[in-house]
C-alpha cells in the first residue's frame, strides 16, 4: 500500500479549507484517510498552516510521498528539513542536539520572516486607510467650501431682489396716488 501526504478539501464553495492528511494513494481525494496531520487555510494573508511536524516526519520516514502542494507546505513549515536532519542523525553525521539546534535556528529565522511580512501588510493597510481618510477630508472641505459659496451667491441675489422690489414699491405707490386724484 503506497501512502500519500495530500490535501483533503473542506469548506464551502469559493472558500476552500484543507486538511493535510496521510492517505492511501488509491482512496478518493476527500475520502478515507489514515491520519490527519494538520490544516491549511489559503483564505488568509499570509495563509494559515497548522501542522504537526513530528507526525509528518514519522510518515515521511515510513515512506509516505507528499504531493506537490503538500511538499511545498511541508517545506514551508520545516518538516522536510527536520526529516533531512533526522536522517543525518540516523546515519551518525549529526548528534540529536546539533540537529535540534539547527532546526530551532531555522524556525526562529522563518518566524522573523513571517512576522516581517505581517507587519508590512499591516503597515500598508494602515497607510491605505490614512490616504483614504485624507482624500475624504479634502473632498469634504471642497464640498463645504462650495456650499458656502452657493450660500453667499444666494444672499447676494436676495439682496439685489430686495433692492429692486424696494425701488419698484414707491413707483407703484405714486401711480396709485395719481389714479385716485
Describe the structure.
- This protein is α+β, with helices and mostly antiparallel strands.
- 65% of the residues lie in helices and 18% in strands.
- The chain contains four helices and five strands; from the N terminus they run ββββαβααα.
- The chain has a five-stranded mixed β-sheet.
- Strand 1 and strand 2 form a beta hairpin.
- Helix 1 (53-61) packs across helix 3.
- The protein starts with a strand and ends with a helix.
- 14% of the residues are buried.
Top keywords for this entry?
5-stranded mixed beta sheet, alpha+beta, 5 strands, 181 residues
Give the arrangement of secondary structure elements.
Layout: E1 3-12, E2 15-24, E3 35-41, E4 48-51, H1 53-61, E5 65-66, H2 68-77, H3 79-91, H4 96-180
Parallel strand pairs: 1-5
Antiparallel strand pairs: 1-2, 2-3, 3-4
Helix pairs in contact: 1-3, 3-4
Report the order of strands and helices.
Answer: EEEEHEHHH
Residue share in helix? 55-70%
Largest sheet: 5 strands, mixed
**Helix/sheet category:** alpha+beta
Are there runs of 5+ residues with pLDDT below 50, and where?
Answer: none
Amino acid at each position: 500500500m503506497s501512502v500519500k501526504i495530500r490535501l483533503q478539501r473542506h469548506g464551502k464553495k469559493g472558500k476552500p479549507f484543507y486538511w493535510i492528511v496521510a492517505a492511501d494513494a488509491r482512496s478518493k481525494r476527500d475520502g478515507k484517510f489514515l491520519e490527519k496531520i494538520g490544516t491549511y487555510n489559503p483564505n488568509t494573508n499570509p495563509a494559515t498552516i497548522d501542522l504537526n511536524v513530528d507526525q509528518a516526519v514519522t510518515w515521511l520516514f515510513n515512506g509516505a510521498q507528499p504531493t506537490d502542494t503538500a511538499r511545498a507546505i511541508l517545506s514551508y513549515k520545516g518538516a522536510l528539513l527536520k526529516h533531512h536532519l533526522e536522517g543525518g542523525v540516523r546515519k551518525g553525521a549529526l548528534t540529536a542536539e546539533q540537529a535540534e539546534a539547527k532546526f530551532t535556528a531555522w524556525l526562529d529565522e522563518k518566524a522573523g520572516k513571517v512576522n516581517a511580512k505581517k507587519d508590512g501588510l499591516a503597515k500598508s493597510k494602515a497607510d491605505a486607510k490614512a490616504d483614504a481618510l485624507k482624500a475624504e477630508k479634502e473632498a469634504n472641505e471642497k464640498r463645504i467650501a462650495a456650499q458656502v459659496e452657493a450660500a453667499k451667491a444666494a444672499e447676494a441675489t436676495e439682496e439685489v431682489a430686495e433692492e429692486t422690489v424696494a425701488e419698484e414699491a414707491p413707483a407703484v405707490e405714486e401711480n396709485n396716488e395719481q389714479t385716485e386724484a
